[in-house]
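Predict the 3D structure for this chain.
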Amino acid sequence: MKSVLDQLREMTVVVADTGDVEAVATYKPVDCTTNPSLVLKALADPASEELVAHEIEAGQKAGRSAADVSDALTVAIGARLTGLVPGRVSTEVDACLSFDTEASVSRARAIIADYAERGIGKERILIKLASTWESIRAAEILQNEGIDCNLTLLFSMAQAMACADAGVFLISPFVGRITDWYKKAEGRDSYAPNEDPGVISVRSIYDYYKSNGVNTVVMGASFRNTGQIKALAGCDNLTISPQLLDELSGEMTELPRMLSPDKTSGVTPVKMNEVKFRWEMNSSAMATEKLAEGIRNFDVDHQKLIALVGARMSGT
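Done. Predicted structure below.
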């Protein structure tokens, strides 16, 4: 019998939720993703030392700031990952720009330009943006320029609907973080997969998209256990940590398909404007809190990355 991971690959695009080169080489995902948290880990990885040293030296010679070198390092790691996966590498726009449409567009264009200088075309990259109203508007502009986007930190149907209206390439609804919030709010230790609020959220979004012919890719993310992953088998994409990929590869049970574009409820489409979006987000304490928390945490890691690069540049 095939492993659960191999069975999953037959119905879902498996993405590695890591910037670790060895992990990507081991599990051979179609796509991979990176963010400041993952770049921080790469900074401490001996396998990345030569790349890190090269980017820092080049930045010093060019008189660049630690922030600029951090940006270049992130793209350098992404460029290396494009050599290990056949698909896309997601690269994140600074979290601190999440409420600034114009600045987000500018930063995204700079990321694509940096990749181009390294010989990597925009067709290999997804620009990763938080699912705020302003970032969704930035994604709409970028999509019209042929720059595909991955809208992350997505916790609600309102965000998913707005992304669909904007024609974004891919969304990343966060399963585990939704579950974490409800476990705390409801005093629960766990949920059965079919009762898991994070799983239910992604299933609802998938059903809405497939019912209405939305081409945006649904990529479940932020998993806490393999049960959540198996409950979403058949979703367009799933981004999975190396630890959970390892567990799935070692499991030899049958994996039934749970999601299919041929099985939908026919839910009616809804046009999402800014007023409705902000009201729907305000109405969901979970979505509001988890989006804000995610943006803050990504920014904390981004600042840590800049500080570490700055220390390396100064020799401290």
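The chain has 14 helices and eight strands.
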